[in-house]
Design brief:
Blueprint: H1 2-10, E1 48-49, H2 52-56, E2 59-60, E3 81-83, E4 93-97, H3 99-103, H4 114-128, E5 140-142, E6 145-148, E7 151-155, E8 161-168, E9 174-180, E10 195-196, H5 197-212, E11 219-232, E12 241-252, H6 281-295, H7 297-302, H8 307-332, E13 334-335, E14 357-358, H9 382-397, H10 403-429, H11 440-454, H12 458-465, H13 478-485, H14 491-497, H15 504-516, H16 518-523, H17 527-544, H18 548-577, H19 580-594, H20 602-613, E15 629-630, E16 642-643, H21 651-658, H22 666-671, E17 674-675, E18 687-688
Parallel strand pairs: 2-3
Antiparallel strand pairs: 1-8, 3-5, 4-11, 6-7, 8-9, 9-12, 10-12, 11-12, 13-14, 15-16, 17-18
Length: about 700
């Protein structure tokens, strides 16, 4: 591969930039190689750039100064973008390519010839790391602001991501390319603009997993690692260690977000911060014109002569898409983790995958981000937070869209659209394909309550319901109940989940403070934490008095009660259908299409990370073993702390598995089954499938 990279680099002298559809930027002065001619692509030569965003929106020209000055942190007033240049990495190497995502750009399937595939990966490593620029690419960083954990943070912007340009395909589609982790920008603040391998693999895999689950999302075309390293304090304990730098090629119609419109915000009454372009309503209108004409052309055509109605229709559609998006999240058990306004897409996509997580044991108050100590972005609060973020977008659009009009639209649309979409999706997950009944909402609520009380696995419980014996000839539920109760949390799992987090002396002090000075307790923000800790102590006490047999009996009883209600509802649906055989076939088909067998659980991502950090990205056949490192404490970044027997979980094989999440058929899914190690007794190893309940150690994984 090194020779192939040298061959590509040797084409420097012969490279001639073809005329792009958009304009080619002048050489940027921020890199020593900026004035050199770029290598000429071969596989990627067909990509045609037309960078409409940079023509339609104001772009800051980097200030003159010494080498590297354009990427120096600074306010960027009066502009939506600032020109930048990716910083090169040492010896970039492809971790994985997503062929379905790259196909969006018109790039063909991988060649059968091994040498050709190797050359293709060498080219991908060169251009998708940012070490070389494609003809027509115009790297820039986007300026935006945001409310983070409810507080306005002022200017944020692309601190580690870079817009490359927009590729127009033969199919008439337009896709924005972005490199995440390509180096510093004016928005990097005190950071280095880099992303490490573990966070890059998580974003790469989850972007593609969400797409194949049918959820609107940005895409990831490539993940590239390197020999470059940066220091990261993985456990936030004052002991930083070097980690490999990596870059993700992200693909989307646009990466504009709610926070893109917050650059005009005046001084915030709580934080005192303001956006960099206060008072520039001309740029706000310019952005609205660009977004609506490019991504909502039907609205532009319908309201061409009335700007207020055009902006109102735009906000109404963003509200609907956002409500539908968060309903999809709830139905698949996805937790975003950092639902700040700067992480909300203006076109209704899931964007910016950081400390995300999928529910294992169903817990409506689950918080996937260990930094979110107040639980602001818990699973159950996601719809509420998305609505709050839309309120902030409404404020950011004023006066181009009068605030009272935007608030009326939000009140009219969001809750109704969320309930409609959520309930319809839940009906499909339960196989209710014919009659819609008012009591369906209560049936779903009682199902989730049963899952919560029994600690049932969210994904697996729904998947099992696809095989529920619905016919009148199948009255015996014993076998099905046994399978369903096996997905409930064991006593060991529950004791682990509800173990107290505070030192007893700390808890005693908090209780004394709650009695003597409740105002101070509220001021320092520990009231919610105290309530959760008291609940954990109480649950732990009850669990200590419970035997496994008693727990199993309670779980079985709760599920049996709900299943009788469910069967009665299915019988009503069947009666509305008439043809029993046709109804049964449709029910199973719809349930299989809406209840995934595989989701990107944290422990699966962690295993892929450990395999990649060991340097193995292969697609070798045969099942991988258990994770090389098993986390035993909750500190940060999904990083592990103690060792287990060596093993390799392949990023590419996990990616392949996630491309077929619903049916799990074929060689790809079967090849990604994970085998547990031999037990100490030397007995034959037990197989642990990715579709099984997670291993107990997975509950210890925390991401920040």
């Amino acid at each position: 591969m090194a020779a192939l990279r040298l061959t590509l680099a040797a084409s420097l002298a012969a490279a001639r930039a073809r005329p792009p559809l958009g304009r080619r930027p002048p050489p940027a002065p921020c890199s020593a190689s900026a004035g050199a001619m770029e290598p000429e692509p071969r596989w990627l030569a067909g990509l045609r750039f037309d960078n409409r965003a940079l023509r339609a929106l104001p772009v800051e020209t980097p200030p003159s100064g010494p080498e590297g000055a354009p990427s120096a942190p600074r306010p960027v007033p009066g502009a939506c973008f600032s020109r930048v240049r990716p910083a090169p990495l040492r010896q970039p190497r492809v971790v994985a390519l997503s062929e379905p995502a790259l196909a969006l750009l018109g790039l063909g399937a991988p060649p059968a010839d091994a040498a050709a595939r190797e050359a293709r990966e060498a080219e991908a490593a060169l251009f998708f790391s940012g070490n070389a620029l494609l003809p027509g690419a115009e790297p820039a960083a986007h300026c935006y602001c945001g409310h983070q954990f409810g507080q306005f943070a002022g200017q944020l912007g692309d601190g580690a991501a870079m817009y490359l340009g927009e590729v127009c395909t033969a199919a008439g589609e337009r896709w924005e390319l972005q490199l995440k982790g390509a180096g510093p920008t004016p928005f990097s603040r005190q950071a280095d603009g880099r992303k490490v391998l573990r966070s890059s693999i998580r974003e790469f895999l989850c972007s593609e997993a969400m797409f194949h689950l049918g959820i609107p999302t940005t895409r990831a075309g490539a993940c590239v690692t390197s020999q470059s390293t940066v220091e990261r304090d993985v456990f936030y304990d004052g002991n930083p260690r070097p980690e490999q730098c990596a870059v993700v090629l992200r693909v989307a119609p646009t990466f504009l977000r709610f926070g893109s419109f917050e650059i005009f915000k005046s001084s915030d009454e709580h934080t005192g911060r303001a956006g960099p372009s206060v008072g520039r309503n001309d740029i706000r209108v310019q952005m609205l014109d660009y977004v609506i004409s490019t991504f909502y052309p039907e609205i532009q055509a319908t309201h061409a002569s009335d700007s207020v109605q055009r902006h109102a229709a735009f906000f109404r559609e963003v509200t609907r898409r956002t409500a539908q998006l968060v309903a999809e999240w709830q139905c698949v058990g996805f937790c975003h983790g950092v639902l700040n306004t700067d992480n909300m897409s203006i076109v209704g996509l899931t964007i910016d995958y950081g400390p995300f997580g999928f529910l294992d044991r169903y817990d409506p108050d689950h918080v996937c981000n260990a930094s979110d100590t107040a639980g602001r972005y818990s699973y159950s609060r996601q719809p509420e937070v998305c609505k709050w973020n839309l309120q902030k977008l409404a404020e950011a659009l004023h006066p181009a869209l009068p605030l009272e009009l935007a608030e009326a639209i939000l009140a009219e649309e969001f809750d109704a659209e969320f309930r409609r979409h959520y309930l319809q999706k839940m009906r499909w997950k339960l196989g209710l394909v014919r009659a819609e009944r008012e009591e369906d909402s209560a049936l779903v609520a009682r199902l989730l309550e049963t899952m919560h009380l029994t600690g049932a696995d969210f994904t697996n419980s729904f998947y099992l319901l696809s095989s529920f014996p619905a016919g009148p000839e199948s009255r015996d539920l014993d076998e099905f109940l046994a399978a369903l109760t096996a997905q409930c949390a064991s006593l060991e799992e529950l004791r682990l989940a509800f173990r107290p987090q505070m030192d007893p002396r700390q808890l005693s002090m908090m209780l004394m403070l709650a009695q003597s000075n409740p105002q101070l307790l509220a001021l320092i923000g520990t009231r919610a934490s105290l309530a959760r800790e008291l609940e954990r102590v109480e649950r732990q006490s009850r669990l200590e008095q419970l035997s496994p047999a008693e727990l199993h009996s309670k779980n079985r009883s709760r599920w049996a009660e709900w299943l009788l209600e469910y069967r009665a509802r299915l019988e009503k649906d069947q009666e509305a259908a008439g043809d029993t055989a046709a109804w049964q076939a449709e029910r199973v088909r719809v349930m299989h299409a809406n209840n995934p067998k595989y989701v990107l659980r944290n422990y699966i991502a962690q295993g892929a990370i450990e395999a990649a950090e060991s340097g193995d990205f292969s697609e070798a056949s045969g099942p991988p073993g258990p994770p090389l490192l098993v986390p035993s404490r909750c500190r940060g970044g999904g990083a592990p702390t103690n060792t287990a027997p060596p093993a390799l979980l392949q990023v590419r094989r996990v990616l392949k598995l996630l491309e077929t999440p619903y049916r799990g058929e074929g060689v790809a899914a079967e090849a990604c089954e994970a085998a547990e190690p031999e037990e100490a007794s030397g007995a034959a190893s037990r197989r642990h499938s990715y579709s099984s309940k997670p291993p107990l150690w997975a509950a210890e994984l925390c991401v920040t």
